[in-house]
């Protein structure tokens, strides 16, 4: 064998080293260093917008974005209270069978056209039309006709009183579009609303640019625009924030944020959302048919321990009602202390299951980061009372059909909440609810409480009924309620005026600036 | 290379692609769920029967799979890969945007990895069992063993904390727009990809080089007084070329479909991400189009490798004549 002098080989290594060092780069400050009202906010998140038509929007990022471009008739503030949007006021008439809106004057679409009741009517009619294939259509199920008697008045005729309709009208799905765009069929081509930002440009999968609407009826935005960057990997968003490349980063994996709170370049805000983590039980199967058994399971679960493991100690425990507008004791109606293993064991023995049993438990993977962790915590907690969760981890497309058909004994789920408890539960626990099968249980008492709440607009009555609903749900224990889901906002230190909301809406970006 | 041989190869390539088209189409439909459940998740269960029918019609899922296949395959023959269900954008446009990104990543990674791999492979083979051999092999093994996503994530984190630099801070800049801007975004992901590649190329080079170095013709060449450099490059490396070229060809094919992880971490809008999004949304036309393209790339690269064989080694040319 021949010898090759080692130093010659150094050349290759030197080339490699040069390559790595060649891209010496200066820090790239956000928005080219502009501050105040000329600054553009750069928001990094993992997902992109998928459709441009609000009536067909289901993906979270889509709703979040289109809500900045379009307005609704009513809007929800940070406390979950309804506030005027494109409608300045509304009155309930005909014994709850009509809802009349007075519309805001002098509002213009981004294309310059003036907003009238014709636009509102065309928008709602379009959602009701089956051809639109709008997912928001079910919210308007009780609307029999939409009338526009004059340019500033819109009247909804209802088949029966529907108190939650107003909240539904604050969702992105029921955004107000321009009648002209609807007629021209351009709604899903270029968004054109009355909102605080107008649509500027979109590079699918990469970047979306919105420009401040300087004529916005609720005051012109305190920044020049918002740019959304799609960074599919959450760790890369965190790195980008550390480098000062973004004004706001939105992530969901608690593990990533564990060591961030002390970083100088950013502030970490943990935001409890309306979505909630829950262990759904199938009350139509085996031992779970027995209410006492379900209650024993609910009592054996220790929420705090689960939060410690899954969210490193920081998340908001919740009972059945997640709305910040209606807060009740999470355990009222349960008849035991949550986390009382000995008590739960005794309850189970009394029901005749001292030896315990197995539950086929489905867990969705790939959709959110905490599912498996949570399932394992629940497995170990319930193991202590002899209830064995046999975990079956399934991809979304496998899980969804199984969940829909209630093909499970138990399901680890992340369910969508609402500021209106009726909208949170009517799908599950009313007799004609679209999700009554996966709900796993039907109780006429729940059905009548929900109908009672939706039949009145009197706030005091509603609050009392929702309190009873919360207690009744705990008593039935169809599910074990755990804690609210959490989103993390990484705010650059220069970002001012931004506040997160439970619905994860970004509408507050309007009043945010860069110092 | 005879014309008959060429025609035979081309026919084989087309046959393979038709097979891939059928398999992908069938597998996608055999998956549980559809684009509606993929988009809506558990919300899909809230749809009423007529809402569901309306959505199925909107996404073109209401016609029979056979009709869907021939509609798609007919379009394919005209170079039309269909449109994305979500946005209605033609798949050819989406691929047209994504392919250059991935292609550049793959080429750049190759340009870095091949010389490095070959040189270090030769270095290791120059004295088997010596310190240099063991250290090169050790580093190579590490390069193969550490997963790409770890290297990529660590690289992004390191760039951010050391240089306050984020390669994905701005939107993707094509090489035509700005050479420097493009290189800034692409160099690091290419380097990450190059690590595993270089290790593979190094190992192949080492063993092929060792095998060739032990041949009689090498001893003869040395005996004839050929200079050492000429022996190494002209006689040994040239003869060790076939396995190296094969390995590089295979790796290039893999890269076209396998830059996904790096594209995710560095937020590059390449083919891998297009494919992943297509799969997650069960956007059939996208998955079908990209898979077909990657298969086509594999077939073409394999063909190219065969051609290079023939140039490198006259012995393999006879096979064509016999045919």
For the structure shown, list the relevant keywords.
heterodimer, A: alpha+beta, D-Maltodextrin-Binding Protein, domain 2, Dipeptide-binding Protein, domain 3, ten-stranded mixed β-sheet, four-stranded antiparallel β-sheet, 18 strands, about 30% helix, disordered N terminus, B: about 325 residues, MetI-like fold, 2 domains, 15 helices, about 75% helix, globular, ABC transporter substrate-binding protein (chain A), SBP_5_CS (chain A), signal (chain A), SBP_5 (chain A)
Descriptive account of the structure:
The complex is a heterodimer of chains A (515) and B (323). Chain A folds into three domains: 1-46 and 196-264 and 487-515, Periplasmic binding protein-like II (D-Maltodextrin-Binding Protein, domain 2); 69-189, Dipeptide-binding Protein, Domain 1 (Dipeptide-binding Protein, domain 1, Alpha-Beta Complex), CATH 3.90.76.10; 276-484, Roll (Dipeptide-binding Protein, domain 3), CATH 3.10.105.10. Chain A is 30% helix and 23% strand. Chain A is built from 16 helices and 18 strands. Chain A has helices at residues 6-22, 60-69, 117-128, 165-168, 179-184, 234-242, 254-257, 291-300, 303-311, 341-350, 371-383, 396-404, 421-429, 436-439, 444-454, 459-476; strands at 40-45, 74-76, 82-84, 87-93, 98-103, 143-150, 153-158, 197-203, 207-212, 225-230, 248-251, 266-281, 357-365, 387-395, 410-415, 479-492, 495-496, 513-514. Chain A has a ten-stranded mixed beta sheet with strand order 8-9-10-1-11-16-12-15-13-14, with helices on both faces. A four-stranded antiparallel beta sheet of chain A has the order 4-5-7-6, covered by helices on one side. In chain A, strands 2-3 form a two-stranded antiparallel ribbon. The longest helix of chain A is centred in the C-terminal third of the chain and has 18 residues, at 459-476. Chain A is globular. Chain B has 323 residues and is mainly alpha-helical. Chain B has two domains: 12-77, no CATH class; 91-316, MetI-like (MetI-like fold, Orthogonal Bundle), CATH 1.10.3720. Chain B has helices spanning 3-30, 35-40, 49-58, 65-77, 91-126, 131-145, 148-163, 179-213, 216-224, 228-239, 241-258, 260-265, 271-280, 284-312, 318-322. The longest helix of chain B is centred in the middle third of the chain and has 36 residues, at 91-126.
